[in-house]
Amino acid sequence: MYATNFPLLLLGFVLALTFVATKQVDSNHHEKLKLPISMCDFAMMVEDKKVFVDKTDWIAEALRGPIMKLITRPRRFGKTTNLSMLKLFLQKDPMVEEKKLFAGLNILVNHSYAEIVKNHQHKYAVFEFSILHLCQGRDPTSFRDELNEHMHFWLNEYTIFYKQYLTSADIDYINVRFLRNSNATISRLLRGYFYVIRRLRNAGFKIAILMDEYDAPFNTAFEDDLETFTGEDSFRTKHHEMSATYVENKALMRQLILFFCKEGVNPHPHLVIFTGITYTSKNSIFSDMSNFKAYTVFDDDTFGPYFGFKKDEINYLIEKMDSNLKIKGFEEWYDGYHFGNVVIFNPYSVALTIDSKKFDTYWGNSGSLEIVQKLISFSGDFGFLEVYFLVSGFSLEKRMYPNLTYQKLFSSKETYWTLLTSAGYLDASRINETDIYRLVIPNKEVKVFLQTRFQGELNDAKKQYNTFLDAINKLESERTESLKNYLEKHFNDHTSLYHVNVNLTAVSLGNEFKLLFDGIERKKMFSNTTQTNEFIVYQLIVGKGDTVYTFHIAKINDTSAEEATTKQLLALPPPIGSSFHFKKGAYSKIVHTAIAFLVKTGEKSLSAFIKAQLQEYFESYFHHHR
What we know:
alpha/beta, AAA-ATPase-like domain-containing protein, AAA-ATPase-like_dom
């Protein structure tokens, strides 16, 4: 499984870092390694005789299935180096072939890959594009200029590289029509690629297109959009026009992708692979593409083992490096990512930990959290409450949008959890084949990083939650004013982009109320809805300490109905099925609480009418009402 035929080293895993090994000899004549981070080029890793975890099985998987693939993973999880490896395997290049870069590695040793090797190794003309560093500008023309320059440069490079397969007339034509025109547009340059690809196909080449960090232009433009999205009118209407930079970048990337995948290269390439952090919806960028599949952190059962380290691979590295660090420390600090059925460790932090001989928040400190912070701040005064629950060790259940468009990030609070998960700050596990996922912080590194980075915000959230718990505790004394004040502040929080719509139903309001209990174990909660003659009721039961709290929530339209409604709600039986959750609980009290929400005519805020009633807990309560 591992490449052990090279002299000592550490990691050249398939990730955007590698180590240069400097040998030193101590008094015991043992070799020690100095491991500065340097490269992500697979050829350099092999030529410099690095010892690395053999991930070449990924090549076989990349060549199976749909011709066109998108693979999303968090930053620094090995996307760039995996593409480098794939390119060197596919590309027909006599100089590369002579180096025998893959000798002794799984892709050549495993006999089950024999047909893949026979049909694909060194059979391709590979066109590789890295988009990440083309997004430095912040105005609508910057990316266009950078992309033009990039595509012009590589058209020239590929023309030179494949010149032996082009006639002198071909080269003259390319130079005159495309390369000598410094003002050539993307459309004109792409016609130059079409010309080269057609000639290479006629020469017997298969064609592969590899595009790394395809979503970088959207991320850059989206950052700018967040800076401008602060107006109160936008907050209230939940409407926002994407910036001219975003629209321009999207149009250019769509033109580029459709050219290589559908319109410009005909017949289509033999292989197209995109990598990135997020999946920009098929309806947005990848529309009309057949034989295409996205492999995201939410649903990828194919490429899980190949981006990041598995436990046995870390054990191998610990042993190879003669490290005193224990696998338990790596499990605590860096694992917890589930890609398909595989548990993955953060490769960047694992590498730096072995190098520095100490555990720390390497990955978190290597990136920016500005987008994350801005998105969470859009949730207003209560935005960090759910982050507080997460760092406190609880899970959240949220709807995920794997094929998210950036516009949707402004439409619902739940959408930014998708971005946080895609970026690697959360781990998501699907619940019963629905679009609801259980979210947790994957490991200690992310937890410590978030606690440090958002210390002030999380302290404020803790105070807010303690205020809520204090209001709940006061219900035992049938005092309801504190809870009334808290709920009215929470539901009428117009500092939030995602503030609660006063037209929501009782069920929706109840679900929002339930979120405030995300700091309680879910096995101690039960919710349901029921119908009376007058209204729909949302029912929630929570076990906390030695007390069972029942909440019956309705929405009314008339202030005069408040007294009768709360009285009727208090008399309702517990929801069917709740006995299973509380029959074995060591409870001594039951607090019944009725909450009636009212929107007064002509107003845009909710009022809450609350009554509470304490009684002694009795085991038959949940059975008596069945």
